[in-house]
Every structure is written in structure tokens, then in C-alpha cells.
Amino acid sequence: MARSPARYSCQQCGAGYAKWQGRCNACGGANTISEETAREAAPKGLGRAKGRHLEFASLAAEAAPAPRRQTGIGELDRVLGGVLVEASATLIGGDPGIGKSTLMLQCAARMAAAGADCVYVSGEEAVAQIGLRAGRLGLARAPVRLAAATSLRDIVTTLEAGPAPDLVVVDSIQTLYHDGLDSAPGTVAQVRASAQELVRYAKRAGSALVLVGHVTKDGQIAGPRVVEHMVDAVLYFEGERGHQFRILRAHKNRFGATDEIGVFEMTDAGLAEVANPSALFLGQRDGAISGAAVFAGLEGTRPVLVEIQALVAPTPMATPRRTVVGWDSGRLAMMLAVLEARAGLAVGGNDVYLNVAGGLRVVEPAADLAVAAALVSSIADVAVPEGTVLFGEVGLSGEVRAVAQADQRLKEAAKLGFDRAIVPAGRRPPAAGVDIVQIGHLGDLVAMFPAVEAGRRDRAAQG
User: Fold this and answer.
1) pTM
2) pLDDT band (50, 70, 90) for residue 48
């Protein structure tokens, strides 16, 4: 029999090529394409053999709700949609050392302590290493069944030998290998085949499966994107190495809301839940510093207050620097252009640094107004009035547009002691104890800083 032709696949995104090349055209990765021996081609048609007839149901048919079980970690339950659904598959990814294994070990230990049958299979650590970490976390007495294995066949055979566990954690999917494939562990073919077999087992046996995955340098889960389509939920564990906060964010969830977040704090005893993230993010804030503004944001269904910090400084370089941490750099460039073109501020010749305090990444357009306030405050060297929060989307013409869930944002601000809110003009949202200041254009915000407003008028008169 002739040898099957070789094919080449990118180990980051799974794109296929007929021959080797140095860079992937799909994801731009360098030296990520490797050879994989293609398996024998499947028959082009189904032949004359007939399959079974499918039974169709109507949309009005009542289905029994899927059994659900709480993990014992409130922030994790929030991200999962309240509880962990049986016969489901969840993929969790994050940077190395961010706390993925610690979180899943704590989850398995708490569920096992509550009476659930939990299995933890590690392909990266030995059983003794996991036991030592469990001892440091105070989880050594939890009845979790541990195993260290990388063979997919051995794992599935062991799981099928007895009653189906309630929870199966596999850490990580990139370490497993399918002995029916010639490629090395971690390749696209191996990750896809291993994930498919484990998800099939979970659906058949009724176990809740959690797969831990590595991420690429771009922050995406390594391996083919089809793995994210196989599972029911995709969670990303985010955080900066210099901060003790960790953010668990749902990017896909068939049983709950997407973009929901859970906030944890890394401590000596493992990951601790943060019930009030707003107070934690603002705990070290000094309200008398210029270039800082408090944004009343919304992450999923949870209102979160976070500090936006900006620094605008003159530069001797021909090309000013634009450094952003925790926000979209393209949106910062747009905001600077709007301030210069619509509000008359000269910021083009300055270095601009923007930071979201606490390690949180903000993706809401509602942060535009708070970012603009921080930039104007830094230019004027005048602090935003203490006890003030801001939210609103800024358009290219400089208008300030309304955002959703304004009442929830204001209630969270009032709960933390803020008594003034700068919001878009329009219907006044109910807010007990908060003075509402409505603005319709970015120029109204600039007018609140007299030094910047005077400079703008001088430039307008000279021009």
C-alpha cells in the first residue's frame, strides 16, 4: 500500500498546507507549521448502506432540565451560569502560572467534600506533586481520585471501567496523545482527536468534563479552533503577573451568559473569591491625583467600578509613544483624534500612557467618557472631583451616547460612596443619593476643566 501523502498544519490555528512554509498565512505565527502524516482518506460517499431514521421533535416539546451541581466556588458558579451541568464539556485556558490547575484542584476538592465523585487526571505533574500542592492549599483530606497519565486510551479505559464520575478534570489537553495518530502530543491532530474522544465519553456517561488548555502568545487557546466548538463552555483565566487579582471570563457558554466574569485573589492558601471586586479595585485609590477617573462598568451581569489612569507628557521624539494596558489601543487613538478634532485639544505631540488599574481588561465602549476625562485631567493637571464616576460612549463627532444598564452602574457607585456621576444626556436614570450631571458633547466635559478650556479658546482665537 502506498504511503499516505504528508500534510502540514499550523500548530496554533490548525490551518493546513500542501507544503512547508515558514509563516502561517492564517494566524501569522512563525515556525508553527509542522508535518503530519495524513490518515487514509475516508470514502467519498456513504455507499448503498442505509443509516437509521431520525426522530424529529417540535420546538414546543418539553425536555427534562439537565442535572446540575454546584462547584462550591461562588465565582466559578457565576461564570458557568450558576452551576456545573452534567454531561457537559468545559474548556478553560490561561497563561502559564496564572492559576488554572489551582482553581480546578480547589473545585474538585470542594465538590468531592460535598459528596461528588471527582477524578483529576494530570499529564504535566506527578501524583506526588499534586499531593504536595493540595497539602499547601489545605485540601489533602478531600477524597479526590488522582492519576498521572498522558495516554488517551488508558484514561478512557479507566473511566469506563467503573461508575461514571461526577467530575472529570484533564490537565492539560495538550499533553495527551492518541496512539492511532503518528503525530506528537500537542499537535493539532492530537488535540482535536483527544478532545473529541473525551467529549464523546462525557456526553455518553453523563460526567461533567473540564479540559485545561494552554494558550498561545496571542492569548488564544492553543490547538485547532474546532475544539472550542466541541465544548459547551470556554473560559479564559486572565491576570497580570504583577497583580494578585485573577479574572475568569466566559467567552462561550451554552448554559449561561457570555462575558460574565469571576474575580479571584491569589493568596498563599490558593485562589480566594472576591465578593466585591469594585471595592478591591479601588482600595488603593487616591482621589486627589490628576489623570485618574473612575469608570462605572458592567462585566456580564455584574457592575464593576475601576480606575482609569492616564498620563500625557511632552516628548522630544519625532514620533510620540502610545502605551495602553487593559484597553484597546485602537480605541485610544480614536479618542485622541476626537479630542483634538472636536474638542480643540492639542495632544498629538505628547506621549500618552493609559492604564486600567488592578489588571482588569475593559472592552466596553462605555469607558470612552472615563478615558476622555482621565486624559483631559492629565493635560490640565487638575484632578477629577472626588466621588465622581463616569460612563458613556463617545462618537466620532464628539457626541456622548447613552449606554445600557445605567441604573445598575449608578447603584453600584452609590453603594461604594460615590455621590456624583457624569453620564450621557437623555432620560435621567433613577439613582438615590447620586447627583447626575448630563452632558451631550465631549466639549462639555472639557469645559469642566477651566485651564484646558482657556487654552482651547486661546488657540481658537489665534487660528
Assistant:
1) 0.80
2) low
